Amino acid sequence: MATGARPADTPQPGLIFDTLLAYERTAALRAAIELDLFRAIGEGPGDVPWLAARCSASERGIRILCDYLTIIGFLVKQDQRYGHTPTSAAFLDPRSPSCLASISRFLGNSTMVASFNDLAEVIRHGHTLLPGEGSVEPENPVWVEFAHSMAPMMAPLAAPLGAIALEGVSGPVRVLDIAAGHGLFGIQVARQHPQARIAAVDWAPVLEVAKANARTAGVEDRYETLPGSAFTVDYGGPYQIVLITNFLHHFDPPTCVGLLRKVHRAMTPGGRVAVLDFVPNEDRVSPPMAASFSLVMLATTAAGDAYTFRELERMLRESGFEGVAAHPVPGSPHTVVTATKS
Amino acid sequence: MATGARPADTPQPGLIFDTLLAYERTAALRAAIELDLFRAIGEGPGDVPWLAARCSASERGIRILCDYLTIIGFLVKQDQRYGHTPTSAAFLDPRSPSCLASISRFLGNSTMVASFNDLAEVIRHGHTLLPGEGSVEPENPVWVEFAHSMAPMMAPLAAPLGAIALEGVSGPVRVLDIAAGHGLFGIQVARQHPQARIAAVDWAPVLEVAKANARTAGVEDRYETLPGSAFTVDYGGPYQIVLITNFLHHFDPPTCVGLLRKVHRAMTPGGRVAVLDFVPNEDRVSPPMAASFSLVMLATTAAGDAYTFRELERMLRESGFEGVAAHPVPGSPHTVVTATKS
């Protein structure tokens, strides 16, 4: 998140007002998605009475919401009619195959949002105020929501990750997909490489989502599941490829090293681990989306962070890996970091 | 609020992610103000251990907060030390005479913020879900908070408003200040014109704040108060000048006309009314700060709005005024609209 613009040379009092009211932007976009407004915008003439009827809402409410969405860049307004911007047409209208609107459910999850209610107290303590490990407490139902609703955001990453994980690989391979979630990453590897067999680790209710996606993708005969905690479940193996996606950021470095050592033991020599994560630059304040993810980890976990490449490299080396390399995913805030078991 | 940028020509999925997490920006800035971080930044060497000690907070929390504030434009970072941007130095460090940090208390008022918790439902209904008239229910304590904490934001408007209200005025004048709040607008007129006597209308507990400010300004001998509702209290008079500041936006046009007629009756012929408000352009989507204020009125009032100049002109004419003119206040989202009793 965050625009990451260079600070203005002259004082900008408006930025303070804007930031103290930024939560209204979140509320407006979430409300529009909930009211199915972006579908109505794509379908209809776009005048207030029509939109209000289509969304079963008041005309006053729809007019003010649509004006606000125009101001913040999600609609255009002309002659008292509202229409899509390129962004809302591609990513917010449910009729678009690339629609991301469902991410509002995970990102607006009440537990996650409530973690920011008293952020000053979080900062005093230095960790989440949620009980235990926060969002990564065992069997936290938020990960079922993640698996359902974040899939459209993660899907565009699957093909690049699959290509990176499979580069130079031939013949039968066994692939371990840790914290599989929606399963799309392992499934994509199975689709790209017909001789790949996938074993997916996650909590059992989450794996139900992954299994359904594997069936839809037609790879269920090469897809097994290992329900439980990635820290304690028996991985079986050995594996030639291991995917660790959107996972290490939840834990402190010693915990990550413990997991990576366990992964290392379950791999064949020459095997490749591929870590997909938010990886900020060493300055920790760029690029904005990856760097700002640290705040989410502060508010929702006991000791997680968005790790820089050097930090990930150190953890991977400490765990026995070598040849650590970064592969930024173009057009995304994510980076794939690969390493090899010698 | 809102940057009001022209929508991008290519789809920007990052804008959706950014907006769904925009509430984190609000949380981060509010937390920094609560922790008195900006004072510490101005005082000290700006390294994490020093800042954490000075703010009685954890190093992990301070590091992640300061990185985040750097990303969103409120700090700069160099060599692991954080420093002020021009904006934070001028408007967030309590040692600065122009510090605005207190506005976080009113803008973060829990009742106001909670009005956005179920914005979809607000839009269905077309009005606030708060009881009765919402934020303008009689004696709502939020206006005492407003009088205390929003004064630094309103203070820069007082001199331009006073000059506009007093233009061409000479000799003894009686001035009515409706919804006086902090009282700064009427007080400024008294300071600019030693023959002006001010009568301030607001709820009694709010007027205590205004009276204290009048004493500080040394104009208490020309300052009287009329406690009660602006709709029912006896104004006395007649007045040559009436100020109506940040008030009409809370009500629907017929209610505004009722108030303006009451004001008209309390004025001398040739007297001037000066309305200070957020006045969006006729397109209702620009400029961004004034136009986006409508959403606040949707969420917190029964029927309020940010009115355009044409709408205000119509209400003023309907109430017997003429010569309606707009005076934008440079560098502010506010406009002063003046009119004359013929």
Q: What would your notes on this structure say?
A:
The structure is a homodimer of 342-residue chains. With 342 residues, chain A is an alpha/beta fold. Chain A is built from 16 helices and nine strands. In chain A, helix 14 (253-265) links the parallel strand 6 (239-245) and strand 7. The model of chain A has no long low-confidence stretch (mean pLDDT 95). Chains A and B meet through helix 1, helix 2, helix 5, helix 6 and helix 7 of A and helix 1, helix 2, helix 5, helix 6 and helix 7 of B.
Features:
342 residues, alpha/beta, seven-stranded mixed beta sheet, 18% strand
Brief account:
Chain A has 342 residues and is of the alpha/beta class. The first copy, chain A, has helices at 13-20, 22-34, 37-43, 48-54, 59-71, 86-91, 103-107, 110-114, 119-125, 142-149, 151-166, 184-192, 204-217, 253-265, 288-300, 309-318; strands at residues 75-78, 81-84, 173-178, 196-202, 223-227, 239-245, 267-278, 321-328, 334-341.
Determine Rg of chain A (CA atoms, Å).
22 Å
Low-confidence stretches of chain A: none
Work out the largest interface and the residue count of each chain: A-B, 92 and 92 residues
Number of helices of chain A: 16
Silhouette of chain A: globular
The assigned structural class of chain A equals: alpha/beta
Largest sheet features of chain A: 7 strands, mixed
Average residue pLDDT of chain A: 95
Strand percentage of chain A: 15-25%
- Measured between the Cα atoms of the first and last residue of chain A, the distance is 37 Å
Run of helices and strands of chain A: HHHHHEEHHHHHHEHEHEEHEHHEE
Quantity of strands of chain A, as a count = 9
Quaternary: homodimer
Helical content of chain A stands at 40-55%
Please state how the strands of the largest beta sheet of chain A are arranged side by side: 5-4-3-6-7-9-8
